[in-house]
Write a structure and sequence with these properties.
The protein is an alpha+beta fold and 205 residues long. The protein contains six helices and seven strands, in the order αααββββαββαβα.
Length: 205
Amino acid sequence: MAQYPSDIGFTPTVKHEQELRGSRTAYAKMEESGGWRTTIDPVLQGFVAQRNSFFLGTASADGQPYIQHRGGPKGFLKVIDDKTLGFADYAGNRQYITLGNLSDNPKAYIFLIDYATKRRMKLWGTARVVEDDEALLEQLMDEGYRARPERAILFTLEAYDINCPQHIPHMLTDDEFETQLSALEGRIEQLEQENIRLRQELAGG
């Protein structure tokens, strides 16, 4: 039975490797001070609301891992309650690897990353497929988004960790770039107007 939330990732073998490589003492202190979080708190909720993509990890019955990218409008991954996230499963390439894996093995993993702020969150839990629930799909779909939902997938959180920013490349989405560019153009216009005013004052003085 797990003693700490991080035991979902830090198995006895992982802890042995940490011992061998010198990081176990630091992680033991982290565990004893509370460690990883186990509910969808305001920090995670706010981070999820700003994401327009994430990676979903599943595994087959014999442990073969699979990672699938999921994308949509900002906030398409929805908070249902303090333990549950959900999203609409849009029509795609019809391979159904994720669906098959979840039928055999409910363990799942969500990886969220914000390239603009170089921040990432790792979520461990289980996931299940929900078919033929129109009310749930309506709750999960974003108005005006052009995609055909086929079913819902619900993720039950067991633990999450906020990871370090090391080696994350700094990138912006189109919207983030446009926002920063607009702010820069506004500042340039302001400085140009200020320059004109100062020149006029010098000419008149």
